[in-house]
Amino acid sequence: MSANDDITEVEEVKEVDVKQMLELQVSEVEMLTSMFPNPGELTMDEQTSVINIRNFLAGKIKYEYLHSRIGFTVKIASEYSDLGKIVVELVCNLPHDYPAVAPVVFTRSSNMNRENHRRLNEDLYSYIQCLDRGEICMFLVVEWIQENIKNYLTKDVSAERITSNKDKREDTVFTRVWIYSHHIFSKFKRRDVIEWAHELKLTGFSLPGKPGIICVEGYSCDTEEYWQRLRNLNWKRITVKEKEECDIGCDDINIYRKFSNFEEKTFEVRGGKGREYHMDLGKLYEFLEKHGCGQVFSVYFGVEGKVADGQVAD
Question: Which ranges carry the RWD domain (predicted)?
Fold first, then answer.
């Protein structure tokens, strides 16, 4: 089933003063730390990320050696007389050029069913897109969640948790999604692509370079969440090229997988300079054929693939 209507296009951001952006990020983390001082309220992905950025700002390391990005999780707790204590985890990743670009955020919560959780993340994404770029906004994001979370909950929280588990258990749709990006170069994006797939128990592969290709397969709810997270990153262009779906009932999902795990693939580089590298599409086609997916090559590139001489038809 084609999914050409499911497209996100994000224009590349103009060059910004990264040093100024990182100074703002450090000050924002300090502010959030003071807002959430209790153990477990704010957890950094990498404890050394702020230290490394401070070293860069102090001129101790060059930008090309700055391999850290600020990422953290905030546990936002709200108390309601009719619902009790509700906890939402806000997962945040800050690109180096944030706040000139939007932060990458999504939520986790055991207090709502899958549909309400999807709406929460979509509405949060829309809210962030409306904020002014160039100004830190995580406090506003936290405030928005605190003010709006009740709209995504039911009065019977215990029933809601049961429903959430039921949704997960009764998802009988196997989905394979083929994603096309103009390019995938960023080490941070490459890390997110892999780690999110592992977290959501998806199999498939990613191909960095130009173009960038990602395939994920698993239960529909997990592939949908993966796509929602992925499209929130800053891309020049990213598209779902194809979506395959089938109801597997009570069958073992592993029967339907074409890939045994999720991994990043790299093939022989041809052409390009510096990081503008292109993968060998002939070897990509050979890899797809090996996994019974050769037909998707023409979906991506509009031509039939060939492996006889290692080249691809023009």
Answer: 27-152
The CATH number given to whatever domain includes residue 211 is 3.30.70.100
Is there a domain that residue 251 lies in?
A: yes
Phi, psi of 42 (to 5 degrees): -130, 120
Does one domain contain both 155 and 186?
Answer: no
Of 6-15, 68-77, 146-155, the least confident: 6-15
Close Cβ partners of 242 (under 8 Å, ≥ 6 residues apart): 1, 2, 3, 177, 178, 296, 299
Q: Per the domain annotation, does 308 fall within a domain? A: no
Q: What is the 3-state secondary structure of 257-290?
A: CCCCCEEECCCCECCCCCCCCCECHHHHHHHHHH
Q: How many domains does the chain have?
A: 2
Residue finishing a domain among 137, 167, 197? 167
Mean pLDDT of 68-88: 85
CB 47 within 8 A of CB 54: no
Give the domain range for residue 227. 172-301
Digit-coded pLDDT (tens) for 140-198: 999 999 999 989 986 544 444 434 444 444 688 999 999 999 989 888 899 999 999 99
Sign of CA dihedral 250, 177, 102, 185: positive
pLDDT-above-70 percentage for the chain: 82
178 and 136 inside one domain = no
251: nearest Cα among 307, 157, 172: 172
Q: Point out which residues pair with 219 in neighbouring strands.
A: 174
Q: How far apart are CA 314 and CA 277, in angstroms?
A: 19
What length does the chain have?
A: 314
Verify that 145 and 185 share a domain, yes or no: no
- H helices within 137-280, ranges in order? 138-148, 157-169, 187-199, 220-231
Domain boundary among 133, 167, 201: 167
81 and 193 co-located in one domain: no
Quote the pLDDT of residue 168. 47
**Confidence label for 277 from pLDDT (cuts 50, 70 and 90):** low
